[in-house]
Specification:
The complex is a heterodimer of chains A (308) and B (204). Chain A is mainly alpha-helical. Chain A is 69% helix and 2% strand. Classes of the chains: A mainly alpha (308), B alpha+beta (204).
Chain lengths: 308, 204
């Protein structure tokens, strides 16, 4: 095969990867799921807003600048350090999130959510973790996703005006950003664990299950965590699953099975561990694998054209 | 990759609607090229910070792009998620205010192992805060926190009594290597040691 042919094929594959028809109804569900989680996130933050970000809390702006990378900035650096300012900013963050939830100019709202999450994050970096980075990046990706066509204020107005429904499948290349980011999370977690001797030797879950902050949520049978063989089994299962999930999600023949396993995996961890909204956010991050799936599209189109 | 996504379903090619390689509304011309370049650049930037470190040169490159990535809010850490080595320490942070008459008042966060699922959810940020506060890398936040502890913990009986000293302690227990028979999960590892990590005299 000539170099030009290879380049042509790669180009076609890249274009197909980005510009294939994807399910925009799922884009809408992704927007709604993300907005609900962001509202919960902001709601919990709001309960202690002045404690975390206020001028009389344990982290005044000077202290927060002392511990953060100097290249990371927040709008709170230039705003007055008052409670009123804080509550106005928080109100704006909530407003953007509600706008995103109902799909009112959702790209603008998504950018607003991104901006405020970044600002609050950089205002008090110590209380945020990996899932907050994921929140922020998903908000940015939503700026590029056409989520307004279904389940939105715009679609409601369209219905009232009796205008035709737009095509369900259309270009939505931003789905690829979600997929790639979700893959980074799984690959990073798998790589990190495979690099650790305690994961490879099978005892890592012993430590995890004895951590008093991260572990322990709803009731689970003690025998699962009181025997060494079970600890080995849980550790190696986690190790293998996290390594296989990112592969299985990208291979069409294993995608649906992997999605089911991934959902079960995240819900199991959500049941047993206290990681706030991380697992729910990962479930939202799995939706693009359905939206871009060719079989899903074929099934939907077959159902739509089937005689009634 | 697109062909992978668009493989015919198990019912057989004849029963599956033909799948176009590109959507009808796929952008053309300059729009297409702009999107292609933008996505490639964005993925590259994301990969720069998120991809596992396979070679030391990646760290050097990360440092080089760090101001840009931080500045536009695209920074993310590597997704370690309890790896490579698991945390092995249960920690509590305690702030102690001492008063001129010898009285002591303590600031404590909830005991996580005794908290309900709802309380753990509600105080998740506090867990992150106290877990981070004890680290030397966050020493820049110790003084502000100590001042907060003094401000919010007055003398229990006489508010006019002056605070003379504040100190911050990490109480901890290191979870040992597992040995059969395992210690039951119902018997938690409770902090049994403590170490001072910040103190300040508050003057006469």
């Amino acid at each position: 095969m000539k170099a030009t042919e290879i380049a042509e094929r790669l180009g076609r594959a890249w274009n197909g990867f980005l510009f294939a028809p994807f399910d925009l109804r799922i884009a809408a569900w992704l927007r709604i799921g993300f907005a609900v989680l962001t509202l919960v996130n902001l709601g919990v933050l709001g309960l202690d807003l002045e404690f975390w970000f206020g001028p009389d809390g344990p982290m005044p702006i000077d202290a927060s600048r002392a511990i953060i990378d100097p290249d990371s900035h927040t709008i709170f650096e230039i705003l007055p350090q008052t409670s009123l300012t804080l509550w106005i900013c928080y109100g704006l963050a909530l407003t953007h999130t509600v706008g995103l939830l109902v799909g009112f100019f959702p790209r603008v709202q998504a950018f607003g959510v991104f901006f405020w999450l970044l600002s609050f994050h950089n205002r008090h970096v110590m209380i945020f973790d990996g899932e907050d980075q994921l929140f922020r990046l998903f908000a940015l990706f939503l700026v590029f996703l056409p989520t307004h066509r279904f389940h939105s204020v715009h679609s409601w107005l369209r219905g009232r005006r009796q205008q035709p429904e737009p095509a369900r499948f259309a270009t939505a290349w931003a789905f690829r950003l979600f997929q790639i980011q979700t893959t980074f999370v799984y690959v990073g977690a798998a790589w990190s664990k495979w690099s650790g001797s305690e994961w490879r030797s099978g005892i890592a879950m012993w430590y995890v299950t004895r951590l008093d902050d991260a572990w322990g949520k709803y009731p689970v049978p003690d025998f699962l965590f009181d025997s060494l063989p079970m600890i080995y089994l849980l550790t190696w299962t986690t190790l293998v699953l996290e390594a296989l999930l990112p592969i299985g999600l990208w291979v069409p023949r294993t995608r649906w099975f992997t999605l089911i396993v991934a959902v079960f995996f995240h819900l199991s961890l959500e049941y047993t561990m206290n990681l706030f909204l991380f697992h729910w956010l990962m479930l939202v991050g799995l939706l693009p694998f359905v939206a871009t799936d060719g079989r899903h599209r074929a099934r939907v189109l077959a159902a739509e054209t089937a005689p009634t | 990759m697109s062909s992978l996504d668009h493989e015919p379903g198990p019912a057989g090619p004849s029963e599956v609607a033909p799948v176009p390689l590109e959507a009808d509304d796929a952008p053309r011309g300059m729009d297409r090229r702009v999107i292609q370049v933008f996505v490639a650049l964005l993925v590259f930037v994301l990969a720069t910070s998120a991809a596992p470190t396979l070679h030391p040169s990646q760290d050097a490159f990360r440092e080089w792009v760090d101001p840009f990535v931080d500045g536009i809010g695209l920074w993310q850490g590597q997704w370690e998620l309890f790896g490579p080595e698991v945390d092995k320490v249960n920690v509590a942070v305690v702030g102690v205010v001492e008063f001129a008459d010898g009285e002591r008042v303590e600031w404590r966060h909830p005991v996580w192992r005794e908290s309900s699922p709802l309380q753990k959810f509600r105080h998740f940020r506090l867990m992150e805060f106290t877990d981070g506060l004890r680290l030397d890398s966050n020493r820049g936040a110790w003084r502000a926190f100590a001042e907060y502890v003094v401000r919010t913990n007055p003398h229990p009986t006489d508010p006019s009594v002056r605070a003379t000293r504040v100190s911050l302690w990490r109480q901890f227990v290191t979870i040992p290597v597992p040995r059969a028979p395992l210690r039951p999960i119902a018997e938690p590892f409770v902090p049994s040691e403590q170490r001072l990590f910040y103190s300040a005299d508050l003057g006469p």
